[in-house]
Amino acid sequence: MDDDGKLSTGRTPADVLRDSRRKRTKWYELDTPARRAVQVRLPQQGELYDIRSTRSAADVRDLLAGCAIDWRGFIEADILGSDQGGDSPVPFSRDLFEEWVFDHIDALMSLAGSVITDARARGEKKEDAAKNSETS
């Protein structure tokens, strides 16, 4: 690291952190045909470790709420119901996502299953890469 806090590549630790998080970011489509999607930053191995033995719906909701970082295609009617909400887009809010996803258990379980599977696969890929580099 040089005097300006940059690595030998010219990048700062903040740059590396941003890129690390970007690598864990993925969109999950909720509808077919596609209308709504949630963008998630895949949980790290430690976060998966936390829920390995207890997986209540609240635990899963909390995991997803901590990982969700954006959404697209959500309208007021998705949150409030068609009797109270219209077709105006609703900006992402972590609290609003948590409220919505816990009220839609099918989406909660489907999204959680996909996120956990992808996070585990990411961890296994990293472990395999580490094993391969040790034997080289």
Tag the structure with descriptive keywords:
single chain; 6 helices; mainly alpha; 11% strand; 136 residues; 54% helix; three-stranded antiparallel sheet
Q: How would you portray this structure in words?
A:
The structure is a single chain. This protein is mainly α. It has one domain. Helices cover 54% and strands 11% of the residues. It has 6 helices and 3 strands. Strands 1-2-3 form a 3-stranded antiparallel β-sheet. 14% of the residues are buried.
Explain briefly what this protein structure is.
The protein has about 140 residues and is mainly α.
Biggest sheet statistics: 3 strands, antiparallel
What is the CA–CA distance across the termini?
27 Å
Please work out how many helical segments DSSP would assign.
Answer: 6
**Low-confidence runs of at least 5 consecutive residues:** none
One letter per element, helices H and strands E, the order comes to HEEHHEHHH
In angstroms, what is the radius of gyration? 18 Å
Q: What is the molecular shape? A: globular
- The overall pLDDT, averaged over residues, is 85
* Major sheet: arrangement of strands: 1-2-3
Helices and strands: which structural class?
mainly alpha
How many domains make up the 3D coordinates? 1
Q: What percent strand? A: 5-15%
Number of strands: 3
User: Helix share of residues?
Assistant: 40-55%
